[in-house]
Every structure is written in C-alpha cells, then in structure tokens.
Design brief:
The chain has about 450 residues and is α/β, with parallel strands linked by helices. The protein has 20 helices and 14 strands. It has helices spanning about 20-30, 65-75, 95-100, 115-125, 145-155, 170-180, 205-210, 225-230, 245-255, 280-285, 295-300, 315-330, 340-350, 355-370, 375-380, 380-390, 395-410, 415-425, 430-435, 440-445; strands spanning about 10-15, 30-35, 50-55, 80-85, 105-110, 160-165, 190-195, 235, 260, 270, 275-280, 300-305, 335-340, 375. Strands 2-1-3-4-5 form a 5-stranded parallel β-sheet, sandwiched between helices. A 5-stranded parallel β-sheet has the order 7-8-11-6-12. A two-stranded antiparallel ribbon has the order 9-10. The protein is elongated, with a radius of gyration of 28 Å.
C-alpha cells in the first residue's frame, strides 16, 4: 500500500496579533500564518517537512507576555526567529535585549510587508540572502562592489589585458572568472596560475611548455598552461613574482601573440586573453628593477581594483550568510544564521584577511556552533565586543557625542530613518531607541 507524503508547507508561528494586511501579504507569498500564545498553554507544533519561522510580535505585549516570549526563544534556540519591535520599546530593557539577541532579523513597526516576506524566506532557508549582481558570481550590495561589477561588465567584452589589484583575500580570482564568464571566451578554457607558487626553475616550462630533452627530467613534450588555454583566458595571480626570464617571454606573447616551448626555437601562435593580479605595488617593483616596465604597461591596459572587506561594510553579513548557506548544503550543521551580537562583531572587525578570512571563520563557526544562531564565541570575535563595550564606557562625554552624532546624521539624511541607520551602520530599531534614549523628537528636530 502506497504511503502519500504530505507536501511541505511554509509556516509562520506568530506570537502576537498580526494585522489583516500582514496576514494577507504573507498568504499571497505562500506562507501559512498560525497565531500562537507564548504562555505555557501555547507552543510550537510542526510537521517534520515543514519550513517554520517563529515571529515574536512585541507590539501589544505586556511585561508578562514579553517575559514568556523571551523564555520561549531560549527554549527553542534551534528555530529561526524574527521580531517586530514598536518604536516605543523600553530602552535597555533586558528582556527586549534578549529577544533582539535571539532574533535573526527584527523590524521596527509599522511593518513593511514586502521586506518581512523577503526576510522570512531568507531565514527560512528557501531563497538566497540576496541575488548576486547580474549573477556573475560576485555577492554584495555595497557601493564599492557595485563599482567593481560595473567595471567587470565594461571590461569583459574587450579583448585587452586587465590588471586586477587588491589586498590578499579580496577575491581577485573571482573577478577574473567573472571577466572570463561574461566574455565571448566563456565556453573556452580558463587557466588560473599562482605565479608565486611555481618553482623558479620550472616557471617557463609550466607556463609555456617544454620539448623532450629540454632539461634533465624532461622525458616527454609538455604543453604549458598557455597552450592548454588556447582560445580562452589565462589568469596570472601574483604576477609580480615572475622571474625575469618569464617576464620576457610573457612580454613577447603580449606583443606578438607567440610563444616558444623550452628547448624549441619554433614559434607557436596562440589566441589567449591575459588577466593578471597582484597584491604588491607593481609601480614600486618597477622602480626597484624587480619588474619590467614595458611588461607593466602591457598588463596595465585596463585596471580593476578589488576593495578590502572593511570598505564593504554593507556586504559583510551578506557574505557571511552566503558562506554559511553554501557550507550547510555540503555539510550537516545546526547553524542557520548569526546572532545580533555576532553581526555587530563582524561589522566592527577590521578583517585583515578580507573575504578569505571571513569564509574561514564562518566555516569554522558552522562546525562548532551548538545552536541555530552562530555567536561571537563561535566566530572567535568575542574580544571585538569587549573592546566595543570598553569604548562605550567613556561616560558623559561619549553620551553627548552619541546624541550629537544622531542629530547630525538625521539632519544630513533629511530625517530618513532608514538612511540614517545605514550611515551609522545600525538598525532602524536602534535609531528609534537612540532617539528615545536622548529624548529626541523627530517632528521637533525637523
């Protein structure tokens, strides 16, 4: 007898009182809304194959229900939680802070239903955090990465070399693959070579190949990376580490489109586009005689600078969630998102290792995390919050400076709370709380 499997549902367990337009908007987006009580008689029920997101609505709660909500969140740390916070929420209320800390996302009311639907899908794991710009493999929505994507789109169709610069770990190879993927060569080979990892005595052979008997141990003809990528793209990472003889051969290829295998005098004509990357100052290397000036100018026809992660503050949490989602697709992990404290720590951290360091910390945290939310200790960033707390204990001078900063930012952003929050790198909820803390009336400030 066949057993029918129940179709998986997407369900919001709403602890509070959803408005009719909120119910309608969620229903149209395919979400079932189940109103629940945070008290002892309430609870969370689900089927095994359901996608469930819990929502803590504090708009109509009294202290007892808020306390029950906080306890419920503590009892169900494996669930993804979203919170709705009214503008008049008590400042520095411990229970509210616990709820915000346990929430993956929280919204100040009135609620933007479209944003709520997007957030529910995101934390429920049925859609990516953000669409990658143009779907070219680069994630982010910061102005810095937007400029990179715009340049890649301009450079990709042009058959000219591109020099990609940036600190270690900023994603130079990702940019090179995007350039190749958007070019007419997309269906041809892409060869990525780390020049700094090649043995100095074998660089020529690795790049351009060799003939049998060209040197001791050359028992057969070998095709180099350039020939193997015929018709496609060669990406030379850390090009500044090339030895002088290889620099000469590369220059000849860029000028004439020909190469010679080691041990041969026969010229081979090739159609290959060259992309190069470096984290060192090639101009200084030219001045010091470590890099050929004519080769530098041949490579530096088009230039693409990859910004460090500290210049992409809008992208840090987005990238972290993407890395976590990718990890969860390949490995079992309890972690589904990041706590509020973890997000604050990631935004305050300097990230000397850039995107690569972020990836490594997220993957390690996904392994060690015990709950659905990755915390600061899982990311090994607890000291960041400690330093942040120390900075905030400067007394009345800091309080006055904070008040002045909020007023100035509100005026500069024409009292647009969302824009002010973005500039100050905090949530809209925090802006409302700061206004209440410093007794700032938005209507009176205008």
């Amino acid at each position: 007898m066949a057993v029918l499997r129940e179709e998986a549902r997407r369900c919001v367990v709403w602890f509070g009182q959803p408005a009719s337009e909120e119910r309608t908007g969620l229903a149209e987006a395919g979400w079932i809304v189940r109103v629940a009580d945070a008290g002892p008689q309430g609870g969370i029920g689900m089927r095994n194959n359901d996608t469930v997101v819990a929502l803590a609505d504090l708009r109509h709660g009294d202290p007892a229900s808020t306390r029950a909500m906080a306890q419920l969140m503590a009892d169900h740390p494996w669930l993804p939680w979203v919170a709705l916070i009214p503008p008049d929420v008590p400042v520095h209320e411990p229970l509210v802070d616990r709820i915000l800390e346990a929430s993956i996302e929280y919204f100040a009311t009135p609620v933007d239903v479209d944003r709520l639907v997007e957030a529910l899908g995101r934390v429920g794991g049925d859609q990516p955090l953000v669409p990658e710009p143009g779907d070219i493999g680069i994630t982010g929505r910061s102005a810095a990465i937007g400029a990179v994507v715009a340049s890649i789109r301009k450079y990709a169709p042009v058959e000219l070399p591109v020099l990609i610069t940036g600190e270690t770990g900023t994603g130079k190879e990702v940019a090179a693959r995007a350039l190749h993927g958007l070019s007419a060569r997309a269906d041809r080979p892409f060869a990525a070579i780390n020049c700094g990892a090649l043995p100095p005595n074998l660089v020529q052979s690795e790049l351009f190949g060799h003939e049998r008997g060209a040197f001791t141990g050359a028992n057969a003809r070998r095709i180099g990376h350039f020939e193997a990528a015929a018709g496609g793209t060669v990406f030379l990472d850390e090009v500044g580490d090339l030895p002088p003889d290889a620099q000469t051969s590369l220059l000849r290829f860029l000028q004439e489109g020909t190469l010679e295998r080691v041990g041969s005098s026969q010229l081979i004509k090739l159609d290959v586009r060259v992309l190069a990357a470096t984290h060192v100052d090639l101009e200084k290397a030219v001045e010091q005689g470590r890099f050929r000036e004519d080769l530098y100018y041949r490579l530096n026809v088009l230039r693409l600078r990859m910004p460090p992660l500290r210049e992409r503050e809008d992208d840090v949490v987005l990238l972290a969630q993407k890395f976590l989602d990718t990890f969860r697709e390949q490995h079992p992990s309890r972690a589904r998102a990041f706590s509020a404290g973890a997000r604050r720590a990631m935004l305050d951290f300097h990230w000397p290792g850039n995107v690569r360091e972020l990836l490594n910390r997220v993957q390690r945290a996904a392994v060690v995390a015990e709950d659905a939310l990755i915390g600061v200790n899982d990311l090994d960033l607890a000291d960041v919050l400690t330093k942040q707390a120390a900075r905030s204990s400067l007394g009345s001078t800091r309080v006055a400076a904070e008040r002045d900063a909020v007023i100035a930012c509100l005026r500069e952003s024409r009292f647009n709370v969302s824009e002010c929050a973005r500039r100050l790198k905090v949530s809209r909820v925090t802006i409302y709380r700061l206004c209440k803390k410093h007794q700032l009336a938005l209507d009176e400030l205008r």
